Amino acid sequence: MVSALVVSPGFKIGRMLFLLSLLTAVFAAIEVVVTSAFGCSADELAIRKIISEEVTAWNSSDAAAYSKHFAPEGTFTNIYGMVFEGHDAFKKRHAETFATFFKGSVRRETVRHIRFVTRDVAIVEVDTEVTGFGKIPSGVTIQSDGVLRTRLQQVFVKYGGEWWIEAYHNVDVKVCC
After folding, report:
1. What strand order describes the sheet that includes 162-172?
2. Residue 15: closest CA among 25, 26, 23
3. How far is it, in rounded angstroms, from Cα 1 to Cα 42?
4. Of 33, 49, 159, 169, which sits 20 to 30 A from 68 (CA to CA)?
5. Is there a contact between 129 and 148 (Cβ–Cβ < 8 Å)?
6. How many angstroms separate the CA atoms of 150 and 32, rounded?
7. Model confidence over 112-171: pLDDT tens digits?
8. What is the pTM for the complete model shown?
9. Which domains are present in the chain?
10. Cα dihedral angle (129, 132, 137, 143), rounded to 10 degrees?
11. Are 172 and 149 a contacting pair, CB within 8 Å?
12. Residues forming beta bridges with residue 148, ordered by sequence position
């Protein structure tokens, strides 16, 4: 025989509040463990996630996704030294390159350094490698192994709890010595 436990509505609400508090504590503990395990703050993890999303978007030739975190008034200098201002220009330029010489290319990014200059501003230095591209316009160095290597510097600014790319400056890496 199964008997049902009848409880008052107040008990159910109290139990739900207890479970909610317990879940909040568990998630906070998980964040501390993850932060400790990776040596990263929650903000650094959020920025690293954006970088990862950039790579996924590039490798899908998805200009909209690639520009998702680019600020409305952000500035962009590409590997040719061309300067663009604003989110729409950033998105348009990447749509153009994804449709032409970077069509079907594969990009890898390695974060070299994330430096928080304030709680809400971070300078991010990234090494990139691009393979599988078409004929690149002159003026850019392609390494002897056929890989385009660049150094990307992005300035992230946090607004309302969200990280945005305010400056994006990319240069091709020259072979030294």
Report:
1. 83-85, 70-77, 162-172, 148-159, 121-131, 106-118
2. 23
3. 51
4. 33
5. yes
6. 34
7. 999 999 999 999 999 999 999 999 888 898 999 999 999 999 999 999 999 999 999 999
8. 0.76
9. 40-172 (3.10.450.50)
10. 50
11. yes
12. 130
Q: How far is CA 111 from CA 20, 151, 159, in A?
A: 36, 10, 22
Cα–Cα–Cα angle for 156, 124, 158, rounded to 5 degrees: 20
Q: Which two tokens stand for residue 51?
A: 């970088």
Residue 175, classed as helix, strand or coil, is: coil
Whole-number pLDDT of residue 33: 47
Tokens of 67: 């520009």
Residue 39 contacts by C-beta under 8 Å, 6 or more apart in sequence?
none
Is residue 48 within 8 Å of 112, Cβ to Cβ? no
- Give, in order, the Cα–Cα distances in Å from 41 to each of 22, 55, 91, 126: 22, 21, 29, 18
Q: Locate tokens 């709890």: which residue?
A: 161
